[in-house]
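fwd from M.: "can u put these together and see what the complex looks like"

so here's what she sent:
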Amino acid sequence: MLVEEIMQSNPIHISDGTTIETAMDLIHQHKIRHIPVVDSSHILKGIVSDRDIRDASPSIFHVNEFKEDMKRPVSTIMKYPVITAHPLDFIEEAAVILYENDISALPVVEDDDKLKGILTETEVLHTLVRLTGAHQPSSRIEVKVSNVPGQLAAISSIFKEAQVNVTSVLVYPGTIPNTKFLTFRVQTMDPRQLIHNIEKLGYETKWPRVPGLNE
Amino acid sequence: MKHHASFVYSEEQLSYKFSEDHPFNHLRLTLTYDLLKRLGTIDTSDIHPPRMATDEEIALFHDKPYIDAIKAAGEGNLSRGIANNYGIGTEDTPIFSNMHEAAALLVGGTLTAVDLVMEGKSKHALNMGGGLHHGFRGKASGFCIYNDSSIAIEYIRRHYGAKVLYVDTDAHHGDGVQWAFYDDPDVCTLSIHETGRYLFPGTGDVTEKGSGQGYGFSINIPVDAFTEDESFLENYEKSFREIIDFFKPDVLITQNGADAHYYDPLTHLSTSINVYHHIPRLAHKLAHEYCDGKWIAVGGGGYDMWRVVPRAWAMIWLEMTEQTHLLEQPLPQSWHSAWELKAPVHLPQTWLDPENMYPAIPRRSEITDKNRKTLEKALYHIRNEQRKKPN
């Protein structure tokens, strides 16, 4: 999946001459936390976050003081150069950039530096939800396997034989070395036969556990 | 003896049948009806055969191409590829002969119940054949082809303009009904179910609250696996009372899936039959307090059809007709004799379950605490709104 498939196109943006006050209004009005700053040719010049604005605005104990500060242009508080993503980046690459830089939004630009969109934590998290398949009617089956080739294929063939559609597959390392967990969401309300067949092959499946008890 | 309640039933409802060994089996309806009859609690004048829902009525909720596909499938004229796009021809919802007619009859049953209640011919009505809450606009899911409750709610909105509260105590999330009215402020849905962490359909998180104008009118209480009677009922009673007081509906629809029971093979909750004694009791009481008695009850899930479903659903009828004193007597011996040879399990002798039905659940108090926190989160929004209302 590519950044351009999940980014918000035509994001709210401002120019470097916009006042801090206007930027603050936009952030409240649209319930957003970041606004890209562009010049007259739509080239990205900087980014303003709700934190930058908060730093510039008076404390709640002094709301009526230094009001003129809020009339200053955003160019005085915006951050630049900007960390960006390319529309053709993979989502996992963009997620790494967000994580490593400890930021929560990436303006998306092509090689001409013109603003194409914005990618925020929200889109990345929503993609994670879609990847886990949790938004489609399905049951969850978790299988513990050894960390050797062929395990995913062995389990998948059980679903194939039963003609049950799989909405998602996640593979993650187990807590014990050399084990992995395969987590499937399968489109059935009655997974009993599937679980029986998986266990018949000698695999261990996980069931709802009692809260507070470790496995 | 004339009751204030109507019983929608006919043997033809049993035509909704996927296969011999499919877990969804409407022989449940006959088992329940037979039990009530042998108890002498049901009069021929109480019984109303279901009518067939028309295509226009089904189309109040479902897409036309979907209805056409179900018809074609039932006549054996739908390719496997197309069928799968509509969620049929799967393990869960296999194709069977005349499936459109069978499904339309279940919808018609719920509409029959609606008309009896909304036209004032009856205070309450029960259609055990309905409650197929997983059906989507254009897709079958989880044993459900047409979503009778969604159609009935839309039908009530169009024909009677009444506000509907839908309460779903099936162990699975009532997803089809919830999404149908997710942005509608005149329909409020409450679903109490086992958390979707493992269980189908996976949705029904406490954070699903409705959208747009309908924000706050979808309420979900996902309870933990192994939840027992006390905690289940605490969540049910508190949420139901507060929601009905907040929403003030004109009519109540309850979906009475009986699969939260310890014996149910598809879910992981640990309630006893006691829960199914209390669920209709509160619904009955609140229907009189808020809706002038207007209460339509439908069935739903329930996959231990011998030991659990007949008792659970009979209790709805006994509650509707104020005959619950009969629960103190043993189950009629003649019902036993009629069915025990056909049942693969021992049929229960009493209305209530024995105390030691299952081994004690460790960490019961943690589960109860967790469910309480879920309830707080689920009711947070309406409690805030209630506080804002001028008194």
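replying to her w this: The helical segments of chain A are 3-6, 20-30, 50-56, 91-101, 121-132, 151-162, 192-200.
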